[in-house]
Design brief:
The structure is a single chain. This protein starts with 5 loop residues before the first strand and ends in a 10-residue tail after the last strand. It has 16 helices and eleven strands. By secondary structure, it is an alpha/beta fold. It has a seven-stranded mixed beta sheet, with helices on both faces. A four-stranded parallel beta sheet has the order 6-5-4-7, sandwiched between helices. The structure holds pyridoxal-5'-phosphate. Pyridoxal-5'-phosphate binds at residues 77, 79, 127, 129-130, 196, 234-241, 291-292, 342-343, 376-377.
Amino acid sequence: MVTPWLEKNPRAAKALKFGRDQQFVVNPNGIPELCEDLKQCPRHAATPLHALPALAGRLGLGELRVKDESQRFGFGAFKALGGVLAVYNVLSGAVGDAYHFSTSFADVMSGKHKEVTSRFVFSTASSGNHGRSVAAGAKLFGNRCVIFLPRFTSAEKEAAIRARGAEVIRIDGDYDTAVAECKRRSQENGWTIISDTSWEGYDSVPRSVMRGYCVLVHEAIVQWPKGPTHVFVQAGVGGLAAAVIGYLWAALPHRPTFVVVEPESADCWFQSNLLGKPALASGNADTVMGGLACREISPVTWPVVGEATDWFMTIEEDQVLPARRLLAHPLDGDPAIASGPSGCAGMAGLTRVCTDEAAFKALKLDSHSRVLLINSEGNLGEEPA
Ligand SMILES: Cc1ncc(COP(=O)(O)O)c(C=O)c1O
């Protein structure tokens, strides 16, 4: 142990190959084509990959780049890539089963196969962003949608989900309680769950959600051919981390050093690393980082996140606001970036490491390091930056 908040992964070896078990979680095949197809969508544009040379210098690094998902589709978070695609995959799969031909996004959207697609009611539990994405997908394809929200999700996020035509059921409990209630009610009613987390016997939909996230990783590789030496990625259940780690591992000639960042009270990956298998968070997941407020990991992601993350770390609640400020009010010449509490968690993790000599050394960071962060959500009006 370097510090109580930073722990090495004893299973991660650089020689480890991206194999079948990893490809089951994140399949890199077809992602460039998916990015091409997305260009047909009028609202789609690759999100910026900002360079922050002044901050890189201040932190003692060579380069620092931030993939800015606050600009995704006018949606404000990377989650837009997952839910919509997963809803489409269920509907197009049903059309394929019925007629033995493959359909298109445009055809499903226009209601061409209504007799097959309209019977689906979609549901999910969400801390906000994923629910908004599933609601957007259901609206696009004309389906009913029910979203289960935990107690802490903001009124703004609930309003944004309702504005997309979905029904909202508030659960008097946390995210994991909302997942359990969503499972129960969906089974009773025959609804199709579009979850971003997996469980025993349920992994196909979460894998298609992660496939959507791979779009942002592919864009980053195209935007930065030299690629990172270090990646700090925040985790809730681990879907984003799996897409980032898995796709970069498969696509780059040298696997970067991967660091997974979590809130102290929602450290399910940190604890799982210590135990060597999925474990519960040590705290009650009461955190301002709503998107990361998970007590359990998504087990299907283990062969990627559990095996190839080099370091797991946690951050404290009072490190969130300074990280948001650092992005919003940058040093001379760096671009300003709007981030939400979960969006800036990677930055909070990086600054924590860069201001601790032992941690900085342990991660082999220096003035030649090239660091990638994901600003996974913008400032969605939850609190002032
Ligand atoms: C803004 C934001 N960042 C990161 C995450 C973490 O993603 P995952 O739960 O896939 O680890 C979430 C999840 O909701 C989120 O909303």
